[in-house]
Structure formats: structure tokens, C-alpha cells
Amino acid sequence: MSIANGYLDLVNRGVITTVTDIPSPMQIDGRFQFLNNPTSNFYIWLRSSGMGQPGIGIKFEMQAEPWNPELRQISIGDYTGSPETWTENVLIFNHSNKMILLDTWYNFKVIDTGYDIALYFDGATTPTLALATAGTAGSKVSFFNREGSAAGSSISEGGLTRFDSITISVPEPSSLSLLLAGGLVALAGRRKSE
Prior knowledge:
Elements: E1 2-4, E2 7-11, E3 15-17, E4 26-35, E5 41-48, E6 56-61, E7 72-78, E8 87-93, E9 106-112, E10 116-121, E11 129-132, E12 140-146, E13 160-169, H1 173-193
């Protein structure tokens, strides 16, 4: 991990983790690009102990499969329990939709309500991927670069993820009260109609 010219660079399994606990609900906004290695990927780990898995993992991957370098993927997974209980939602990019490319900046926003995770990728106004889960293994947030071992590369091949900005925000207590009250009103309305 290094910081230079205003950028945070994670290389060869570099990781950065919050020092303090970040409770749900929270929002993470940021911008990243992959440099140097087309088999790079990185995770944003939420609700973790600070060591990545177990936790909620959001993965951005340059090359999903070594035999088809045109496939890219984004996934959200709940890895808080035992492997047989893990759940994952995956979005695969190919020529018919947007791909993740080297040397290209991408914006992302993650909203964690404590019960749902929603990812907004590259300016999307509706969730690109979402996962309903209350699973947790802690309250840390981590960013973890991986060199893309699924494609046969080694840790020394320099998989690099560069971040231009990362902001983690937690609603003010008054905002949280309004969110909870709004949720209770919506729940009461739904129960009346049943």
C-alpha cells in the first residue's frame, strides 16, 4: 500500500482497514481504476473483523475467467457463516454491456442499511447489484487488492488498484430516527393492507 500524488495504491494483496468500527447503516462513495495487470481484482469488505473474510464482500474483477478474457464481473457475497450458508449475487459484463477496463476510472457507491447492501456502479441511479442480508462478523471496513490468482498470475505480478477518493459516512442520529420512523410507517401501512 502506498499514497502518492493524492492517490491510494493497493498492490500485491495490499489492504487498508478502518481503525474504528463503522456501524450500519453507512454509505461508502469512491472512485478507482485498475492499473498494470488485467487479472487484478479488489474487494470492499463490510461488517468484517478487519481481516476480510468473514464479512460481506463486494468484488470488482477485471478478468472473471482465464479462458475468456472478455468477461468481467462484480459480485456481492455474504461470507459471514459457514461456506454452505454463503450467498452471492454476481453480475457478468461482456461485449453486450459495460466492461471494466484497465486505466479507466469508475465511481462506486455502497449503501448498507444493516439489512440490505446496494452497489451503484459507474454513475448508476438504481442499484447495479443488491443483496438482502443481516449477516455480520464485525464492524470494520476494508479495501483489499488481489492479483487475480484465478487467471494463473502470481502475487509478484503487480496487480494494482488505485483510488482517487474514498468516503465513508454514517447518518446523523436525527437522520437515522427519520429513516427508522419512515420504515415503521411503511411497515405499518403494509400490514394494514394485508
